[in-house]
Specification:
With about 325 residues, the chain is of the alpha/beta class. The chain folds into 2 domains: about 90 residues, 3-Layer(aba) Sandwich (Rossmann fold); about 140 residues, NAD(P)-binding Rossmann-like Domain (Rossmann fold, 3-Layer(aba) Sandwich), CATH 3.40.50.720. About 40% of the residues lie in helices and about 20% in strands. The strands form 3 sheets. Strands 1-11-8-7-5-6 form a 6-stranded parallel β-sheet. Strands 3-2-4 form a 3-stranded parallel β-sheet, sandwiched between helices. A two-stranded antiparallel sheet has the order 9-10. The radius of gyration is 20 Å and the shape is globular.
Length: about 325
């Protein structure tokens, strides 16, 4: 069986090209540019410095006015709330993103609840979550990024979901016990799985994990343990989505030895499941590039909403 690699980079580049073109048009037409603020804690995980750099570079390359605000990982929630409130008041900022994960002592839900829901573009604000659950992702103001990215990945790759197929989400215990991670996982999975299919969320510590994996037609792996999934656990032909990025090591760039390059792995060893899985969205390179493009597309939508609000008095619309 030949395993199909679901590579999201080409699709991301296509979406990026569309966003960049729209931003350039908006600058010419309205003499304004969309603003996005990334806020983050630093120092709790080594990968965060690369996460920050990735988001900043992508947004700047597309033409966003980019603001970065950070706090040490030892900070309390009150310090980050002050930053959020400042960004809420800034008319030049149309989108606010709290980069994940946050330190263990921080309640991400409480922080996100302080973000102006009109600027919270990931679909994580409690009111935006309610919109997603009651209206569906495509009728929400900002489609929740995770299930939207999944739909677009499948559509771009021609992956078909058939009636009665089973989805299994194999996740670390923190994605079940942590209120924020659990909320997003359960909301996203409820939207991603067709109503005529079944889905199960199983703890990676569950002694029957391999039995759940063997049943899966679609297997989502979300783990902070790199490449833990065993090939013998898989049902032949399964479609695997490897979601969570882990920093394995840093190596010096061959072109610039002074620059370090991150080596990223997900919970699945892609080479080990070749010719067993029917398809795999690897980590890195699978779902995550599309997730970033959906995030920045939502940021531009927030900018357009703000322009429309400004022009309602004059009867114009963007």
């Amino acid at each position: 069986m030949e395993t199909k690699i679901l590579n999201g980079t080409a699709y991301r580049d296509r979406i990026f090209s569309e966003i960049k073109h729209e931003i350039a048009d908006a600058k010419t037409k309205y003499r304004q540019m969309p603003g996005i603020a990334f806020i983050a804690f630093e120092g709790h995980i080594p990968l965060m410095k690369y996460t920050i750099a990735l988001h900043l570079q992508a947004a700047r390359d597309l033409g966003f006015n980019v603001i970065l605000e950070t706090c040490p990982h030892t900070s309390g929630e009150e310090e980050m709330v002050k930053i959020i409130e400042k960004m809420n008041r800034a008319d030049s900022i149309h989108a606010i993103v709290l980069l994940q994960p946050v330190p263990k002592h921080i309640n991400a839900i409480e922080l996100i609840e302080h973000i102006d829901r009109n600027k919270e573009i990931e679909g994580f604000h409690p009111m935006n979550v309610i919109d997603t659950l009651t209206k569906g992702i495509y009728k929400s103001k900002y489609p929740m990024c995770l299930p939207t990215a999944l739909f677009e990945l499948f559509d771009n790759a021609g992956i078909q979901v058939e009636r009665g197929q089973e989805f299994v989400f194999a996740v670390d215990s923190d994605f079940i016990s942590n209120p924020f991670r659990s909320l997003i996982l359960r909301t996203a999975s409820s939207q991603a799985v067709s109503s005529d299919c079944s889905f199960t969320i199983v703890n990676n510590d569950n002694e029957k994990l391999k039995d759940f994996c063997r049943r899966a037609d679609f297997l989502f792996v979300i783990s902070e343990t790199p490449e833990f999934l065993k090939p013998e656990w898989l049902k032949p032909g399964v479609c695997i989505i490897d979601v969570y990025a882990n920093l394995i090591k840093e190596v010096a760039s061959k072109k610039n030895p002074d620059m370090m390059i991150p080596v990223i792995r997900g919970g699945v060893n892609t080479e080990a499941v070749m010719n067993i899985a029917g398809a795999i969205a690897p980590c890195p390179g699978g779902l995550m590039p599309i997730l970033l493009s959906v995030l920045l597309r939502n940021a531009f939508v927030a900018f357009k909403h703000a322009l429309n609000a400004e022009r309602q008095i004059s009867g114009q619309e963007v």
